[in-house]
Design a protein that fits this description.
The chain is an alpha/beta fold. It has twelve helices and 21 strands. 28% of the residues lie in helices and 23% in strands. The radius of gyration is 24 Å and the shape is globular. The structure holds ligand LLP.
């Protein structure tokens, strides 16, 4: 399609309607390494490749939409976190970001532990052979059945989230003749600078036990008295997609304050502090995430300093990155179906997926990048909104971005940094079938989660 086929879409930053897009990159064919998986590039024909395989070939073999995951990149990032934190700390990958049995095996091989937050995630972890003692079990409303399963399996820690759960877990562990290692999740009252729905340390929300008013101290007091529990530490997770370390600093200060109070009252020095996950990644070139070694250094310095001040032995630190490991390792591959220029506004590009495979834009106003992947183009940039095929006007994948003005049906486009919270939050809205996850490594691709079929949908519908 020639440029003149899209006469209406504004093409230049100075004539753009209000929005929070950034100006078009100098070269729309360029792939900013910040937002793309490590092995992504373009071949001699201009086609995007990952792990040495062209996306055109992946589309042909596995169809679109599809999540394409760079296994080498996943392993590199997992290892970078592991190495950065060293042997005095533990890294628990947060399975909620994306979990599959292949991922569990990679984590196991790379020496990471695993955070699960439901019976389903626990089942996936155990079925892929993750040693139970390297699993942490989270959740604000674990069912008695889930708790029993976790205790029986011998999970390394259960993170207690309420007064009722303290009693519930103690009771179940005791009835099984076990003493369950636990951490107590507290809310430290930090306002994380992120979207309201993914901030978790302010007090007015469902997770954790507030430090305020002595509630967290009371939780520790009660837990220490119960034979079924071995209280190993305190947990704090302040939120997600955070770039600024100051929130962690305040959290560490307050958690250490609690450890000190516990020592003073009970003569017990709790051995661990978990500072949760939440480290941000680059969704667009405007984001500047920190490297794992910088984060590890900062957190360890903060905790050590706070403990010295409180005359406490420095506890073992653990962290739970999800997005920071898997987020950048995958992109979503879509085929363009229709291209609709709207006079004086922008051009709507409809793809064969949408909010069912990426709900984050609709839910959090998340920003994403996008690139033409099946070819390069020298056409002028046009302002686009990449939308899905669902019956919903909020069905937006990329709110504001630029693509070449000659974009046409049949072109493949890719949205990077969709490894975290896209497949794991995917739905069957409009009876969409959830896309597969295809792992690529060293010139070979394999499906690690297969595409859903109409049969899958109909099997659940028992008439
Ligand atoms: N630890 C705990 C206790 C958590 O609740 C979470 C995320 C993590 C670790 C991992 O956070 P991460 O490093 O992946 O940011 N669906 C949202 C994010 C909600 C995260 C919930 N908990 C999103 O798409 O941004």
């Amino acid at each position: 399609m020639s440029r003149s086929a899209h006469p209406a879409g504004p093409r230049h930053a100075d004539v753009l309607p209000e929005g929070h897009y950034t100006a078009p990159a100098d070269d729309l064919n360029a792939l900013d390494p910040k937002v793309w998986a490590h092995t992504v590039g373009r071949d001699a024909d201009g086609v995007v490749t990952v792990g040495g395989i062209a996306v055109t070939q992946l589309a042909e073999e596995y169809g679109t939409p599809a999540y394409i995951l760079d296994e080498a990149d996943f392993r590199d990032r997992a290892r970078a976190w592991r190495t950065a934190f060293g042997t005095d700390a533990d890294v628990f990958y947060a399975g909620k970001a994306f979990l599959s049995r292949a991922v569990v095996r990679w984590l196991d091989e790379e020496g990471l532990n695993l955070d699960v937050c439901s019976g389903g995630e626990l089942a996936t972890a155990l079925s892929a052979g993750m040693p139970a003692e390297r699993i942490a079990f989270h959740g604000n409303n674990k069912s008695p059945e889930e708790i029993e399963r976790a205790v029986r399996a011998g999970v390394g820690r259960i993170v207690l989230d309420s007064f009722q759960e303290i009693v519930r877990v103690a009771h179940i562990a005791e009835s099984l003749g076990k003493r369950q290692p636990v951490q107590i999740r507290i809310t430290v009252g930090v306002e994380a600078h992120t979207h309201e729905f993914i901030a978790t340390a302010h007090e007015d929300q469902k997770f954790g036990i507030p430090l305020a008013g002595g509630q967290a101290a009371e939780a520790v007091r009660r837990a220490l008295q119960l034979d079924g529990l071995d209280v190993i530490g305190i947990h704090s997770h302040i939120g997600s997609q955070i770039f600024d370390m100051s929130g962690f600093e305040v959290a560490a200060h307050r958690v250490v304050g609690l450890l000190k109070d516990v020592r003073d009252e009970h003569g017990v020095e709790l051995a661990e502090i978990d500072l949760g996950g939440g480290l941000g990644i680059a969704y667009t070139s405007d984001d500047d995430p920190r490297e794992p070694h910088e984060i590890a250094k900062a957190l360890s310095e903060i905790v050590t300093r706070e403990c010295e001040g409180a005359r406490l032995r420095t506890p073992r630190i653990s962290v739970e990155p999800g997005r920071a490991i898997v987020g950048p390792t995958a992109f979503t591959l879509y085929e363009v179906g229709t291209v609709k220029p709207l006079e004086g506004l922008r051009t709507y590009v409809s793809v064969d997926g949408g909010m069912s495979d990426n709900i984050r834009t609709a839910l959090y106003d998340a920003e994403y990048s996008v690139a033409l992947a099946s070819r390069t183009s020298d056409a002028e940039p046009m302002l686009v909104r990449v939308v899905g095929k669902h019956c919903e006007s909020g069905d937006i994948v990329v709110k504001d971005a630029f693509l070449p003005g000659d974009l046409a049906p049949g072109d493949l486009i890719t949205v990077p940094a969709t490894g975290a919270y896209c497949r794991s939050m995917a739905s069957n809205y409009n009876h969409a079938m959830r896309p597969p996850v295809v792992a690529v490594r060293d010139g070979a691709a394999r499906v690690i989660v297969r595409r859903e079929t109409e049969e899958d949908l109909l099997r659940l519908d028992v008439g």
